Amino acid sequence: MAKYERQLRRLISAGDPFPASRFTRRELSRSLDALGKRGSTARRHHAAWSSFGNYLVEREIIDANPLRQIRALKANGARELYLSPRDVRRLVAAQPRPSDALAALREGAGVELGVALAARVAVVEKRRQLFHARGTKNPWRDRLFRVEDWAGPLILHACGRRPLTAALFEGATEERARAAHRRAIKALGFDGGYRMHDAQHSYALMRVERGDNVVEIARDLGHRDATMVLKIYGKYAPKEAKLRRGAPRVAR
User: Fold this and answer.
1) For the residues of 90-110, what is the DSSP string, one character each?
2) Which residues of 46-61 are buried (b: 16+ CB within 10 A; e: fewer)?
3) Distance (Å, rounded) from C-alpha 44 to C-alpha 77?
4) What's the structural domain count of the chain?
5) Given pLDDT bands bounded at 50, 70 and 90, which one contains residue 64?
6) 202: Cβ contacts below 8 Å, ≥ 6 apart
7) Looking at the domain assignment, is residue 251 inside a domain?
8) Is 103 inside any structural domain?
9) What is the pLDDT of residue 79?
10) What span, in angstroms and rounded, lies between the C-alpha atoms of 149 and 176?
11) How far apart, in whole angstroms, are the C-alpha atoms of residue 88 and residue 92?
12) Residue 89 predicted with pLDDT over 90
């Protein structure tokens, strides 16, 4: 809901009057162009504004939703930016507490920042290091997943002795997490624009390269099926012969 409101505020500023007469195809097209964004970001704004337009129609404030007459931009091609397993751990280690534990959950399980921030001590099963992602978009986004062995101790340390209802990353915020990530990227000299969301790519690539079951990878990432994993990462799967020989995996 907060993201939807932010996207809507790019069209209608808080406190500024926005008469229904301005909710026109011409005005909306101009506002979309003014965003200066392309691909998935522009598509998300288009979708948010269209949802608001449907609401106005239902309330009989306007007769028709003009966003239906504005073609959404095509989605960007799949983003493929990864860190090697070694550099992933260096990135986590370069961040202060509790940002390091938060980064360990993102990078060690490929979960989204919002899911990581919402984690609670009560959803941590310490013996097996299982965590619960409370996804909201689709039923399959709500899932149990396991973190990589190296990340588990960092995350469990963040739990401490706090009550079961306490936040796993107490005091952590999206702004602080992003700031810690940027500082670590700069300190390590990583270039290429590695973003927090790219943790999902690094995690998926690592598991595909070592020969993990793609259905399990997809489930842990919150995908409905393995289609996306195979489409984006299938080319990195090791040859069956190399799996039998136990050939070492080359970090990318």
Assistant:
1) HHHHTS-TTHHHHHHHHHHH-
2) bebbbebbeebeeeee
3) 15
4) 2
5) very high
6) 82, 83, 84, 85, 88, 107, 110
7) no
8) yes
9) 61
10) 25
11) 6
12) yes
